[in-house]
Amino acid sequence: MPHAQLIGAAAAGALSATALLVSILRASPNFARRLAKKQVITTPHPHPKYKPGDKQPHPFGHDRMISLDPAVIGGAAMYPFVISSVVPRPVAFISSLSKEGEGNLSPYSYFNAVSHDPPFLAVGHCHTKGRPEGKKDSLLNILETGEFVVCIMSEWFIEAANHTCGNYDRGINEMELSGLTPVPSVKVKPPRVKESAVHFECKLRHTYDVKNDKGEVTATVVLGEVVLAHVHEGVAAKSPSGKTIVDITKYWPVARLGGNTYSRLTEIFDLPRPDREWQFKTPTKGDMPKAGS
């Protein structure tokens, strides 16, 4: 079987397995009840009997691997593999303005926080044909104005947020189109999204152009410094040391998987770090660290 076909078959198999797992989970009465109550349940970590040095093999019964060489199969074939393997990914819900003041709102899952002192966020913007220099509206706006806002997507407005990801013409206001509500920012001009529980007002600090083996720019990585952050009181909490954190059980963040698939957070577990003295005794409930400590 040709390499590209092999990759396609593997991807199809993975998607089928994912669909089967999702259908099994959704059929579980306990799962349905948890979702109805919007509960995030704390469970033991997967292997409580683990001791340092114990082997933890994968469950597949063999060691056969499929190798993917980007130089051979190309970016189009790598895309579904990358987005289905690097998971779950947080989603940056980016609000920006053009130099003329036209609003744009769009989700990006090539995204993460990369530092906290100062806080920096990184967003990968893939280029696409049919756009000026291949750049999508969010990237064009950020490069023109040097400002943007990253809001975090939660389950209660996921449908409206997802509606903004269409390939709309430049100048179309996705905030208005989706029914979401703009609120003024403080230190930057692009508005925030009222429905989101966490907002990061950002200033552009660095960009990096990603080039393929033909020398073509295929993506631009944007590094933005967070100049002001906002958290809704409904999800805000305090760590044991008194620092402001987000209560994950109320946040209901949504993460991106492969294809059109998203994930919700329904279970969490604590796993102490091995550099803590109490790691080497049998932990009790009182020993377990609290989130954000």
TrEMBL record:
<feature type="domain" description="Flavin reductase like">
    <location>
        <begin position="84"/>
        <end position="245"/>
    </location>
</feature>
<protein>
    <recommendedName>
        <fullName>Flavin reductase like domain-containing protein</fullName>
    </recommendedName>
</protein>
<dbReference type="InterPro" id="IPR012349">
    <property type="entry name" value="Split_barrel_FMN-bd"/>
</dbReference>
<keyword id="KW-0285">Flavoprotein</keyword>
<dbReference type="GO" id="GO:0010181">
    <property type="term" value="F:FMN binding"/>
</dbReference>
<dbReference type="InterPro" id="IPR002563">
    <property type="entry name" value="Flavin_Rdtase-like_dom"/>
</dbReference>
<keyword id="KW-0288">FMN</keyword>
<dbReference type="Pfam" id="PF01613">
    <property type="entry name" value="Flavin_Reduct"/>
</dbReference>
<comment type="similarity">
    <text>Belongs to the flavoredoxin family.</text>
</comment>
